[in-house]
Amino acid sequence: MTLRAERIGLLALPGLSFLAIVYALPLFMLLLKSLQIDGQFSLAEYQLFFADEFSRSVLWRTIRVALLTTLLALAIAYPTAIAMARAKGIWLSVFLVAMVLPMSVGVIVKAFAWTIIFRTRGVLNDVLMSLGITDAPVRMLFTETALIIGAANVFLPFMVLPIYAVLRQMDSRLPEAAASLGATPVFRFFNVTLPLSLPGVVAGSAFTFSLAISMYVIPSLIVGERQQTLSMLTARSFLYLRDEALGATISSILLVIAISVVLGSSWLAARLGARQ
Amino acid sequence: MTKPVRSDKGQRTYLDVVHVGKAFKGTTVMSGMDFRVAQGELVSLLGPSGCGKTTLLRIIAGLTGADTGDVVLDGRNITSLPAHKRNVSVVFQSYALFPHLSVAENVAFGLRARGAAKGDTGPSVTEALSLVRMSDFADRPIAALSGGQQQRVAVARALIVNPVLLLLDEPFSALDRKLRETMQVELKSLLRDRNMTAIFVTHDQDEAMGVSDRIAVMNAGQIEQFAAPAELYARPKTAFVMDFVGLSTRLAGRVTQVQADQIQIETAHGAVTANSTLPVGTHVTIGVRPELIAPQAGENTLEVTLTDAMVLGSKTLLHGAASEPDKLICELPGMPGGMSRGDTVTFGWSVADTLVYEVTS
After folding, report:
1. Is this complex's ipTM strictly greater than 0.85?
2. Per the CB < 8 Å rule, is B96 touching A171?
3. Residues B294-347: pLDDT tens digits?
């Protein structure tokens, strides 16, 4: 490294030291806590966690909800990102504002707004009943489905924006070249647009999954204590049970899942990107 | 890639663009465009940017829809046929190679789009790559290729499907000068061998002259002249064509005298005689190709003060002092020497070589 590059490296120092003190150090200490019993190294907390059927069901639910949230967000985001990538002028601004503005409304406000739609005598049930689709109101609030819908709503921009960014960069001549070579719109999509947008899909999915697996406010507000997730369990261990070791263990499990997803997706993105 | 049996070059209309009009957001790009190409012909659309040449190419390819008029190809009206059903290949300026596919996969794309299984494209791809001398690069990623190599792959990819028509949008503009000339020669003989009908879009007149049987010079959505390169250069129909194709001495003037079939024109640099019957008082532009001017008195003679004598090796260009839009240029073969800025030189040329255009606006 040249002297100049070293000096430029110094610019990263404030950010790095901030992260080290505020993020890495406490997290490391927390991790240590989950591996110790009375100052001795031990995996007992983990054995305890995985032996407990309730803990396992919470772990499984957390992963399932995060996966389904990611899938739902992807299904909604992909066509949106295509439309945005092709939008021009005022329409592009409308799309971008529509994506970013909801992020400024707090999750709590959103969650209470959803209850108007989803509650037993809410708007959605009124519509379903007036259309004769159901006779009695369907229970929607406090269900996993409502949680997934709500989470997908909150995390949608994190899925749309990376896909949009990749599609926007794509040379618009590529689909045209494909068409002139005899490729139908469907063939074009699966052989040109989709493969070229995969790095965006991977990035967006990694963002959304990481956020969804560690979300706390959204499940607390939508499903409450009925269906716990790992984050809620962590909070309960620290706040109510005062079981720091259990809290640290669950946090560490969450962290491992998140890190695997980030590493896995970076590897996937690099592999997909290397060909381009 | 079997060699197609088509060889009626120049015999009948193969591509017929009939009265095509196109507007973008209310701005008319072209209207009443008529353009005919015979089978096996290599044709160029030549013009400045914004003249509508790329729009015409895209309409023929089916990538842009025409507002009015028809596109007829080989007796079939394809006006409303989508691009993927036309069998018209396009080579783009940026080549538009698929960055996620290898060289061989790019070339095989058209066959796969037509339903060929992945394993069945091998022999055709090998043949297409050897045609453009890229056989050793089959497994390379696109990013590892130079500009010239990318262009070869783009051509192989376009030709492998045996298109009924090949369209090339500024195919050489991304290459440096030496490579561009090599590729022009190579591509031209490749297309000739295959009796391919091809349309080049270009703003480079040398390129158009080099590769085409005929050139359509376009300006503001109109074809000003559609003729063989020699005809275009020797007898440009309009002042625009004269200016756009090749250099010329060019003077603005007014007709002062009419005698038999000759007119006298008063210009800022002296009187000029030309073959024409335009009436007295007409504002005209006269032009002379620079190599038709000799440094001695002729039927038309002007005394010129040199601003520059550019020695280019095979030729020397003398630039005379003139105010825009007038231009005084004489081209002498070789390197005569002994002339420099500030010298007074005689420009002489014949009446027959004097081009005259009425100024309409």
Report:
1. no
2. yes
3. 988 889 999 989 898 888 888 999 998 888 888 899 998 888 877 888 888 999
Q: Which of residues 244-273 of A touch B (CB under 8 A)?
A: 272
Across the range B67-93, mean pLDDT stands at 90
Q: B38 with B12: CB under 8 angstroms?
A: yes
* Closest residue on chain B to A173 (Cα): B96
- Give the CA-trace dihedral at B178, B181, B184, B186, to 10 degrees: -70
Cα distance between residue B46 and residue B38, in whole Å: 18
Asked, for residue B1, whether it belongs to a domain, the answer is no
pLDDT of residue B63: 92
Domain of B266 in residue numbering reads as: 247-358
A170 touches chain B (CB under 8 A): no
Nearest residue of A to residue B140 by CA position?
A: A275
Residue whose entry in the numeric block shows the structure tokens 């640290």: A248
| Token pair belonging to A169 | 């960069």
Q: How would you classify the pairing of strands B198-202 and B165-169?
A: parallel
Chain A residues within an 8 Å CB radius of B158: 180-181
Q: What is the dihedral of CA B76, B77, B83, B89, to 10 degrees?
A: 40
**CB atoms < 10 A from the CB of A48, how many?**
13
Residues B340, B209, single domain; the answer is: no
Same domain, B223 and B253: no
DSSP symbol at B137: G
Does B124 reach chain A within 8 Å, measured CB to CB?
no
Q: Which of A184, A188, A196 sits opposite B100 (nearest CB)?
A: A196
Residue type, A240: Y
pLDDT in tens, B247-265: 899 999 999 989 888 999 9
Tell me if chain B has a CB within 8 Å of the CB of A192: yes
Alpha-carbon Rg for chain B in angstroms: 24
When the candidates are 3.40.50.1970, 1.25.40.10, 1.10.3720.10, 3.40.50.150, the CATH number that belongs to A44-274 is 1.10.3720.10
Q: Which two tokens stand for residue B354?
A: 């004097």
Whether residue B348 is contained in a domain is answered as yes
Task: Look up tokens 């999509």; give the residue.
Answer: A189
A88 at B interface, C-beta within 8 A: no
B22, B189 contact by CB (below 8 A): no
Helix or strand (DSSP H, E) at B248: none
Interface of B with A in 159-198 (CB under 8 A): 161, 167
Query: Measuring CA to CA, which residue among A176, A167, A158 is closest to residue A195?
Result: A167
Sketch the domain layout of chain A as residue ranges.
1-34, 44-274
For residue B313, the SS3 value is: coil
Nearest-Cα distance to chain A for B100, in Å, is 5
In the block, which residue shows the tokens 């270009």?
B202
Give the DSSP letter of residue B279. P
pTM of the model: 0.79
CA distances from B359 to B240, B283, B286, B300 (A): 11, 6, 10, 21
From the list B100, B114, B158, the residue facing A275 with the nearest CB is B100
Residues in chain A: 276
Q: What's at A192, amino acid-wise? A: V
Q: What is the pLDDT of residues A10-30, one digit of tens each?
A: 888 888 999 998 888 888 888
User: Does some domain include residue B167?
Assistant: yes
Contact B343, B305 (CB under 8 A): yes
